[in-house]
User: What shape does this take?
Amino acid sequence: MYGQIDAYERVANRLFDEGGRIDADAWQQLAEASEQRGCLMMSAQSLRGVGLARSSTDQLERALEIARGASARPLTARLMIELGRMRGDAASEQQGVAILREIGDLEYLQRRRVSS
Assistant: This one.
């Protein structure tokens, strides 16, 4: 079960990295079901998608809380960038960029045309 969830989480990550949009209501249900079943990274990715689709900082903040709690640095960085852009918070965005550069995860920066 967890192997499949991990694969789905990676697909969701790529979808959102590339700017894909989703049915926010369906993904909200997925986020809730994932969290209830202890699949926190899938819940975080689902909340990320909902937050991006609805321009909801609340959903992105919840996803960030989960990512930080799981020490998921790549997702934490992406969420910091996305929240920073949504809020106009350059410091948060730059902190996320710095984390991705530090860990060598440059694909997101290239795909989303994020500069340092």
